[in-house]
Amino acid sequence: MKVLVTGGTGFIGPHVVRALDGAGQSVRVLVRDSSRARDLPAEQQPGDLTDPSSLRRATEGVEAVVHLVAIRQGRPEQFQRVMEQGTRDLVAAAKENGAGRFVLMSALGTSQETKDLVPYYHAKWEMEETVRGSGIEHVIFRPSFVFARDGGILPTFRRLARLTPVTPIIGSGEQRIQPIWVDDVAAYFAASLGKPEAANRTFELGGPDIVSWNEFWERLKRALGMRRRPSLHVPTGLLRVNAMLTERLPGNVPLTRDLLTMLEHGDNVVRNAEAVETFAIPLVPLDEQLRRAT
């Protein structure tokens, strides 16, 4: 099967590309910078999600599309242009060129109830709605926090645990998370292309362990051999002031006001076992995730 992957050079993308290649798929990656895709086992297709003509070229001859592109911070119009309109244009191109399946990466916490909470959730919800209404057979995944040795949020947590004399924990630390290892996420995407029973469904993805933020930090410090290092609960309001300042810095910053809003909203855990039951993929336990990342 010929598969187009968008976002193939990001954090999760290379893992998905390699999982697809390992499953025997022929992979094409949409790239703006060819140097970033040099080591990927994939055909490179120059293009940009904001350029509809390049999307039409990229989807020519493909049987499936795996759409991973997202931005984490920016102005509302940037979310609209890159994520919302970009997805509409990509879906239109895929449909025009006869792609038979469209697999979308959304995010855990995305729903009709949360879509107006922050621009990120709004964009993810609009992306989901575009895919659901496309008429193309589709699969939507909503992963929880995705952990990996390099990339994502875990290296930031690792640095905080190692370098700060006191480990800062947001708020009470009682809200729960369900981190999933990056290669497990990639395995879900690779398996989704050939599984008829996954068609036209939305799956929430989490790892096998649900922990509070307090427990997560204790496990991370134990994995790093720093179990005796104390923790400090930092009021969310104080972190908002800090985030307001750091958001003005160039590049991606690890903590934004929108992220704090999402963290405050509730637990980041899956609500059912449909993904586990449908795909039967063995998942890496949290302590093993942390061991691999240290």
Total DSSP E strands: 13
Structural class: alpha/beta
Helical content (DSSP H or I, runs of 4+): 40-55%
Order of helices and strands: EHEEHEHEHEEHEEEHEEHEHHHH
Kindly estimate the percentage of residues that lie in beta strands according to DSSP. 15-25%
Total count of helical runs of at least 4 residues: 11
Silhouette: globular
Distance between the termini: 37 Å
From the alpha carbons, calculate the radius of gyration and give it in angstroms.
19 Å
Mean pLDDT: 94
What strand line-up does the widest sheet have?
3-2-1-4-5-6-11
Structural description of this entry:
This protein has 294 residues and is an alpha/beta fold. 40% of the residues lie in helices and 18% in strands. It contains eleven helices and 13 strands. The protein has helices at 13-22, 52-58, 76-96, 119-132, 154-163, 182-192, 213-223, 236-246, 257-265, 274-279, 286-293, and strands spanning 2-6, 26-31, 43-46, 64-67, 101-105, 137-143, 146-147, 167-170, 176-177, 180-181, 201-205, 211-212, 231-234. The strands form four sheets. A seven-stranded parallel sheet has the order 3-2-1-4-5-6-11, sandwiched between helices. Strands 7-10 form a two-stranded parallel ribbon. Strands 8-13 form a two-stranded parallel ribbon. Helix 4 links the parallel strand 5 (101-105) and strand 6. Helix 1 (13-22) packs across helix 6 (182-192), helix 2 packs parallel to helix 3 and helix 3 runs parallel beside helix 4 (119-132). It is globular and about 55 Å long. The chain starts with a strand and ends with a helix. The mean pLDDT is 94.
